[in-house]
Write a structure and sequence with these properties.
Blueprint: E1 2-7, E2 14-19, E3 24-29, E4 32-34, E5 41-42, E6 48-65, E7 73-77, E8 80-87, E9 90-98, H1 99-106, H2 110-121, E10 127-144, E11 152-154, E12 160-161, H3 168-186, H4 189-192, H5 195-223, H6 228-243, H7 245-257
Parallel strand pairs: 1-5, 4-11
Antiparallel strand pairs: 1-2, 2-3, 6-9, 6-10, 7-8, 8-9, 10-12
Helix pairs in contact: 3-5
Length: 261
């Protein structure tokens, strides 16, 4: 799907053209928010820069014994992080590994796949019983510039798709949405289609965006490195956080709510 800006007159409602393979539809609005996760190509208005991490994310759903509670898990392994996110009576999982390994793992019979996942993750979440809807996709960092036209804002993963480590892309997207909602609340309909509104949003989100992108790069470098010395340092650092609850809470606040919280 492609989205093309048609009308660039800041004094008028924004008109965009949504082009699929078979149809073209025009829509007018005071503010257009691109928040689809990055599948829409905002033609010419939001250039993107991509970095390939050289890893694949295997995703799917897994049943466990006992059934999930409200707790999510993330395990850092030599090949990358594995995250389990509660989803009703099962977990959604994200398993980061090398490209060649991902292809081989997905070809395993179900029993062997579960055994491999169990060995990699451990038994912190219990016994893995059944996995379904397994697939993989390449892990890339994709950073999009904000649209140059007034009345268009690129939000969340459409603006910055980050490595899934520590869920920083999700948290940043939620903060993007909150900041935009607050700005909309403070302005009139006439204001939000003006280029100054988009510029103010970008200014307010710039620090958080840059710091979270840098933090994600750092975490991925630290936790995806197979150095035994670095692994020991990582383990000691995580142990220190467990032994210092106030420091752990401070780190978590920064990861969840962003800089300056």
């Amino acid at each position: 799907m492609k989205v093309a800006c048609v009308d660039n007159d800041p004094s008028n409602p924004k008109t965009i053209s949504i082009e699929s393979e078979t149809t073209v539809e025009k829509i007018t609005a005071d503010l257009v928010i691109i928040a689809d996760g990055g599948s829409i190509n905002l033609r010419g208005d939001a250039p993107t820069r991509e970095t390939d991490y050289g890893h694949q994310a295997i995703v799917g759903l897994v049943k466990t014994k006992p059934t999930p509670s409200s707790r999510a898990f993330e395990r850092f392994t030599d090949s990358g992080p594995i995250a389990l996110l509660p989803r009703g009576e099962e977990y959604a999982f994200v398993w980061s590994c090398g490209k060649d390994d991902a292809a081989k793992i997905l070809e395993l019979p179900d029993e062997s796949f579960l055994s491999r996942l169990q060995d990699a993750f451990g038994d912190r979440a219990g016994q893995f019983l059944e996995a379904r809807e397994k697939m993989s996709y390449p892990l890339r960092m994709r950073i999009a510039d904000q649209a140059s036209k007034s009345g268009i804002i690129v939000l969340g993963n459409a603006s910055q798709a980050l490595h899934p480590i520590a869920a920083q892309g999700l948290n940043l997207g939620l903060r993007d949405a909150w900041a935009l909602a607050q700005l909309c609340k403070e302005n009139t309909l006439d204001d939000i289609s003006n280029i100054e509104f988009s510029a103010r949003y970008m200014r307010e989100r710039n620090k958080d965006r840059k710091q979270t992108i840098a933090a994600t790069k750092f975490l991925n470098t630290i936790f995806s490195n197979q150095s035994s010395l670095l692994g020991t340092i990582r383990g000691l650092g995580l142990m220190a956080l467990d032994l210092a609850p106030s420091l752990k809470r401070a780190v978590l606040r920064q990861l969840i709510f962003g800089p300056g919280y």
